Amino acid sequence: MPDFAAPVERLIEELKHLPGIGQKTAQRLAFYLLRAAPEDALALADAIRDAKEKIRECSVCANITDADPCLYCT
């Protein structure tokens, strides 16, 4: 039997995939996010989604950028 509701367990499991984040830290982060104002938690989710959709590696130097080639390579 899980310790938490299924959505909380899923959040903890996903947070554990981050580097340096174990079970206890993932739980702390999950509880922080659940207690945060909805707009703060959703702003974090939107920032992650936006970065994943718009950021890529520069084809010249492999720096992370939103334009290819990056600012330095242009």
Summarize the structure.
The protein is mostly helical. The chain has three helices and two strands. The N and C termini lie far apart (56 Å).
Explain how this protein is built:
With 74 residues, this protein is mostly helical. Helix content is 54%, strand content 5%. It has helices at 6-15, 23-35, 38-54; strands at residues 56-57, 64-65. Strands 1-2 form a two-stranded antiparallel sheet. A hairpin with a 6-residue loop joins β1 (56-57) and β2.
Described by the principal axes of the CA atoms, the overall outline is elongated
Helix residue percentage: 40-55%
Radius of gyration: 17 Å
Order of helices and strands: HHHEE
Question: What's the pLDDT, averaged over the residues?
Answer: 96
Q: How far apart, in Å, are the first and last alpha carbons?
A: 56 Å
How is the biggest beta sheet arranged?
A: 2 strands, antiparallel
Give the number of DSSP strands.
2
List the uncertain runs. none
**Main β-sheet, spatial strand arrangement:** 1-2
Oligomeric state of the chains?
single chain
Q: What's the helix count?
A: 3
Portion in strands: 5-15%
The structural class is: mainly alpha
